[in-house]
Amino acid sequence: xxxxxxxxxxxxxxxxxxxxxxxxxxxxxxxxxxxxxxxxxxxxxxxxxxxxxxxxxxxxxxxxxxxxxxxxxxxxxxxxxxxxxxxxxxxxxxxxxxxxxxxxxxxxxxxxxxxxxxxxxxxxxxxxxxxx
Length: 132
Ligand code: T46
Prior knowledge:
Residues 4-131 form the Sugar 3,4-ketoisomerase QdtA cupin domain. This protein is mainly β and 132 residues long.
């Protein structure tokens, strides 16, 4: 459920040359098998609009900001991501929509598995049925 969403803070190593953050495998509750990123998102565009049956993902706003609207079949919440050293852990079975991308926003995603189209639920009513 959306109660299982987690904001995970990453180490931030600051010095006069700037900041460095790191994601080591033990900071996430899953081993990541894939990394992808969303960028050059035009103003007003929305991404997501689906749920995953098994996939777990960790999202970070590497640059800029965007909102993630999350639904567990019952409740909805919105998480604003805008810090490169804090990420959102999305467990399995959560519907997500990404919107309000700032210009230059980059969304980095670490995923628990490779790309599998059969893991997606792309219809909201089907998602509600799946959650029953
Ligand atoms: C999610 C949100 C945050 C691939 O070929 N490999 C991949 O690993 C991914 C993620 C996508 N694709 C292809 C599939 C589509 O033809 O790239 C195209 C765009 O994918 P999609 O419409 O799923 O993109 P988003 O931004 O709506 O969703 C993605 C992830 O698919 C999804 O798991 O949670 O980012």
